[in-house]
Amino acid sequence: MITKRIIPCLDVKNGRVVKGINFEGLGDVNDPVTLGRYYSDNGADELVFYDITASAEGRALFTDILTEVARTIFIPLTVGGGINEVSDFERVLSCGADKVSVNSGAIRNPALIGDAAKRYGDQCVVISIDAKRVDGVFRVFAKGGRENTGMELIEWVKRCVGSGAGEVVLNSIDTDGVKKGFDLEMLEAVCNVVNVPVIASGGAGCKEDFVTLFKNLPKVDAGLAASIFHFGEVAIPDLKKDLAANGITMRL
Amino acid sequence: MVAIIDYGVGNLFSLKSSLSYIGVDAVVTNDPEVIKSASHIILPGVGAFPDAAAKLKATGLIDFIKAEVKAGKPLLGICLGMQMLCSKSYEYGECEGLDFVPGEVVDMTPELPEGLKVPHIGWNALKFEGKKSELYKYINEGDCVYFVHSFYAKADKGCITATTEYGIELTASIENGNVYGTQFHPEKSGKVGLNILRAFCEIGGKV
User: Fold this and answer.
1) How confident is the prediction for chain A on average, in pLDDT?
2) Is B194 in Cβ contact with A96 (below 8 Å)?
3) What are chain B's domains?
4) Given A51, A88, A122, A130, which residue is catalytic?
C-alpha cells in the first residue's frame, strides 16, 4: 500500500531558505541546494520549494536555484510561489519541478487551475490553501495569510478539485508556528469533501504530532513542516521509524 | 552512451540529470544516427497514450527502434513509455502500442476497492515476480519507488517482473528479452531508482 509522505518545505527568499513564525519575523536558515540534498539523502519523500520573493531579480535567482536543486535531487519536487499564469507552470517545470503549487494566483484567477490541469495533467497541479477560523467559519486567506478573501474553505477546496487540482495542501494559519499539532478539525473537514491527496501543513512541533495526525485522520496522505526539520528538532529518519512502529505505512 | 528518445512528451530534465549523476553519458535525441551509436535506449513518456503514440509515430523512428532492439540493444520504457511497450491500450479508446510485450493497458479505476484514490500517486513497495530481474540486482524486494499513473499494464504473467499492492496488484515492471519497462519513475525514486537505472545501463556490459 502507498506510504504516507513526510515533506519538508523550504521557503526561499533571495536565494536563502527562511521560515517565518506565523508568517512574520523571517530568519535565515540555510542554503537551498545544501538543504535539499540533505533532505533527499535523509528520508524526505518529497520536497516543496516555495518562492516568497516579490521582485523579478529574486524570481530569476529562484529559478536558477531550482534548476540546481533539481539536478541533484531524485525525489518528487513541488514548487510554489509566484504562480499566476500557465507560463509560470512552464517556467518551473522546465527547471525540473514535478508539481506546481498555486495559491493566491488561483484566488485571483480560478481558471488557472483548469487551464494548467488540461495542459500538464491533474497530478501536476497542487492547490495550496491558507485558511483560518473567522467567527467559527473556516475562511480562505490570500497574500501569505494576510488578507481574508471572505471565501469559505470547503466551497473553495471543492471548486479547486472540481477544476482539476490533483492534490491539496491545507495550511492552517491558526496552528501554523504554534507547534502544538496539526489542525485536525480543519483537515478532517477538507478530507471529507475531496478524493485527492490531502497534505497537512501548519502546527507540527514534535514527532507525536505526526503520529496523532495519521492515526486520527487516515485519509491524510502527507505531513508537511519546515522549521522543526530545518532546526533539527525532528530528524526525518527517526520520525518515520516512529510512525512505522505505530503501524503507519512508511518508506524507510 | 544512452539515447533518451525525444518525441515531444514530458520533461526529460530529471531523467537526464539522474543518468549524469550515476556517471552515464546520456543524450536526448530523435536522430537515428545518435540512437544507432548509443548502447542503450530509454523511452520516456507522460500524458495520455493516444497522444504520445501519435507523437512517437510522427518521429518516424518506430521501425528504426524496433530494428535496434531486435539487434539486441537494451530498451527501457518508463511510465507511459513502459505502457507503450505493450500490444495495446484502452486509454481514450483502443490504440496500438509497440507490441514488444504481450499485454493490454487498462484503467485501474473500475478494479480498485472503494475509497482508493486515482491516480495511484506516491511511494509504493515492489514485490518481485518470477526470476529476479537484472534491473533489480542492486535493490531488495520491499524497496519503495515513486508511481504516478491511472492506467496499468495487464501484461502476460511471464513478462511481469514486479508488482505493487494498491487494493489490487498493479504491474510495476515488465520485461521481454532485452526490452524492459517500469511503471514507476526510477529518476524520482531516490537511491533505489538510481540503482535501477545503474543496473539497466550495465546490461550488455557497457554503456
Assistant:
1) 91
2) no
3) 2-202 (3.40.50.880)
4) A130
Instruction: Record the pTM.
Output: 0.92
State the pLDDT at residue B51.
86
Give the pLDDT of residue A119: 85
Exposure of A210 in the CB half-sphere (CA atoms within 13 A): 32
User: Which residue carries 536526448 as its cell?
Assistant: B28
Give me the interface pTM, i.e. the ipTM.
Answer: 0.89
pLDDT-flagged residues of chain B (< 50):
none
For B44, B45, B96, the CA distances from B53, given in Å and listed in that order, are 12, 10, 8
Write the residue in B119, B123, B193 that is nearest to A123 by C-beta. B119
Asked whether the beta carbons of residue B124 and residue A1 sit closer than 8 angstroms, the reply is yes
Which of B47, B124, B194 has its CB closest to that of A3?
A: B124
Query: Over chain A, what HEC string results?
Result: CCCCEEEEEEEEECCEEEEEECCEEEEEEECHHHHHHHHHHCCCCCEEEEECCCCHHHHHHHHHHHHHHHHHCCCCEEEECCCCCHHHHHHHHCCCCCEEEECHHHHHCCHHHHHHHHHHCHHHEEEEEEEEEECCEEEEEECCCCEEEEEEHHHHHHHHHHHCCCEEEEEECCCCCCCCCCCHHHHHHHHCCCCCCEEEECCCCCHHHHHHHHHHCCCCCEEEECHHHHCCCCCHHHHHHHHHHCCCCCCC
Taking the domain A5-245, which CATH number applies?
3.20.20.70
The domain limits of chain A are 5-245
Question: B95: which DSSP letter?
Answer: E
**Tell me, what's the pLDDT at B115?**
85
Residue B67, min C-alpha distance to chain A (Å) = 32
Inter-chain contact B121–A166, Cβ cutoff 8 Å?
yes
B185 is catalytic: yes
